[in-house]
Design goal:
- It holds the Pfam family Methyltransf_11.
- This is Methyltransferase type 11 domain-containing protein.
- InterPro entries: Methyltransf_11, SAM-dependent_MTases_sf.
- This protein is α/β, with parallel strands linked by helices.
- It folds into 2 domains: about 1-80; about 135-329, Rossmann fold.
- It contains 12 helices and 7 strands.
- It has a 7-stranded mixed beta sheet, with helices on both faces.
- The chain is globular.
- The chain binds S-adenosylmethionine (SAM).
């Protein structure tokens, strides 16, 4: 920018030289004076060029400072990369933990939680960094499709089950969702979410066939990102706490054996009329390091917590609540 200004100054001074040369042609008598003017003006040009040089030097110096400070940023990024995890280490840790988890049945709940407690301490978040683990972002995007308007995003009550360290909650916040609770049985995993202040409420519980201390139809949406394989027996309980007309978004590893068990359960509950499958699709690059694909399942809950279908009444109340909310804000 300043170079442009100085170039313009140059042009102005050079124009002065031209004008003064014209005066030399007009009158011999004025030659001496005019030459003097030319000399003076040349001197001015020289002085001004010197100023330009000096100021260019200043610009160069300041560019050097910018370069040096960018170098600092580059160096600090390099440090982050070095502290981060290379893909081989990621793959090794993932293979070890997956093999441990696969040896457990979903009913081995305490062992599963202990495994995650340990994993939280040995770099869960480094393995599943947002540049390679796309499942939380994809899960959040589905909610955005369901709630495209800001007002609905503010009002929607979301429970992120198997919340882990809060990756899905973070993606939901990025998209503007405001009302998000996290349910997670592993204290070490949820401690990281608490540190980042991701959720409004932290529910240290596990999903199973045991009734939770959450009232019927309380949530508009439940998300289960990369965790539903741990609680297929708890699906009716999830349906109980989601209002009729509300949704459950499940995104799981496509190749997991226990996810097949999960799919069987989803089908069974659809046959019973508890919910309906709205969408089921393959998600490429669920976890890009191992080219792992995922399966996304969007369910709409049809009954209330008691297996009834009071859809119309509850939906009407819900709309009233949302309207009231919109007036207050
Ligand atoms: C692979 S992590 C996924 C965490 C998080 N959703 C994410 O995307 O990073 C699976 C999580 O499910 C939790 N989990 C295991 N059994 C559970 C259960 N019965 N109910 C709820 N969460 C459970 C684990 O403790 C763990 O944090």
């Amino acid at each position: 920018m300043s170079k442009k200004v100085f170039d313009q100054m140059d042009d102005t001074k050079n124009k002065e030289v031209d004008d003064s040369n014209k005066e030399v042609d007009d009158s011999d008598k004025e030659v001496d004076d005019s030459n003097k003017e030319v000399d003076d003006s040349d001197k001015e040009v020289d002085d001004s060029n010197k100023e330009v040089d000096d100021s260019n030097k200043e610009v160069d110096d300041s560019n050097k400072e910018v370069d040096d400070s960018n170098k600092d940023v580059d160096d600090s990024n390099r440090e982050v990369e070095t502290e981060g995890m290379d893909n081989k280490t990621r793959t090794d840790i993932l293979a070890e933990m997956t093999s441990k988890l696969s040896s457990l049945k979903y009913t081995d709940r305490n062992d599963i939680v202990q495994t995650y407690n340990k994993w939280a301490e040995t770099g869960y978040e480094q393995v599943f960094s947002s540049d390679v683990f796309n499942a939380p972002k994809r899960t959040a995007e589905v909610l955005e499709e369901l709630y495209p308007f800001e007002i609905d995003k503010k009002g929607a009550k979301i429970l992120d089950v198997g919340a882990g360290t809060g990756l899905c909650g973070i993606e939901l916040r990025k998209l503007g969702f405001k009302n998000i609770d996290g349910l997670e049985p592993s204290k070490n995993m949820i401690a990281e979410a608490m540190e980042k202040d991701v959720y409004d409420r932290y529910i240290i519980e596990m999903i199973s066939d045991v009734k939770l201390g959450i009232q019927d139809n309380f949530y508009d949406v439940v998300t289960a990102c990369s965790c539903a394989r741990h609680f297929p027996d708890g699906f009716p309980e999830i349906a109980r706490i989601v209002r009729p007309g509300g949704h459950i978004v499940i995104l799981s590893n496509l190749d997991d054996q226990e996810d097949k068990e999960m799919e069987t359960m989803i089908q069974k509950l659809e046959d019973q009329g508890l919910w309906k499958v709205v969408r089921m699709e393959i998600v490429e690059e669920f976890f890009s390091v191992t080219n792992q694909r995922g399966i996304l399942i969007l369910l709409e809950v049809l009954t209330d917590g008691n297996g009834n279908y009071p859809e119309k009444e509850i939906l009407t109340n819900r709309t009233k609540v949302l309207r009231k909310y919109s007036v207050c804000t």
